[in-house]
Amino acid sequence: MRGASQKTLEMATESLIPLESNPEVMNKFLQKLGVPSQWGIVDVMGLDTDALAWVPRPVLSVILLFPTSQAYKEHKQKQETEILSKGQVIANDVFYMKQLVSNACGTVALVHSIANNTDQIGLSDGVLKKFLDEAKPLDAASRGKLFKECDGIINAHKELAQEGQTNTPNAEEPVNHHFITFVHKDGVLYELDGSKAFPINHGATTSDSFLEDSVKICKEFMARDPNEVKFTVIALTAQD
User: Fold this and answer.
1) Which of 12, 30, 73, 82 has CB atoms 3.0–4.6 Å from 35's, for a disulfide?
2) pTM, 2 dp
3) pLDDT tens readout for residues 120-177
4) Residue 99: which of 108, 90, 89, 86 has the closest Cα?
5) 150 is catalytic
6) b/e per residue 140-161 (b: at least 16 CB within 10 A)
7) Ranges of H-type helices in the chain
8) Is Cell division set as a keyword in this record (predicted)?
């Protein structure tokens, strides 16, 4: 299954072929960008306790692919309004960027996963490390603009988007699924969705409970769309 954000993504000026939620394809992409092979994407085959026990640890990020339904859009607006009213705490070292390229949500999710775990991932010198170094002092919108202009990452996305098990869609073809990332930072679970106004603080978590806590939020997405079945959960973990 391939993911993309809404066709009307604000300020998006370019459309890419969406990346498939295929661990083999995503791991090729990560390794091309300098992520060592001891870290990689795996499928989360089920969301119950027994299935989660099979996911390799440590888990650095959880990525959810879900349908961009009306229920998602309504909740997104309600959530933003509530946060703007009540406020939330976001740690200064959370790396978050806006998505300004249509159909790049899979790559944005992977960049969010790596950028918030550079203390554990020995990222090699290359295009992604250079991007993160340049993006670190910028705000979320400026990071998104820098990403849009980063030919190395964009070209790697284009190359790997041609691979996978599903038919490759046209870049202009609407794809109504979207990738988001969950990361653990300073004892807090954050949702990073490049189409939202800001990161979402989902409360306390720990390294040990991060996967289970992220899955609880994934289940909330599913509960808002009980008639949808096209949800996929993957994770960035230590490789066996």
Assistant:
1) 30
2) 0.90
3) 999 999 999 999 999 999 999 999 999 999 999 999 999 888 875 554 444 444 558 8
4) 108
5) no
6) beebbbbbbebeebbebbeebb
7) 23-32, 49-52, 70-86, 105-115, 127-135, 140-148, 151-161, 210-224
8) no
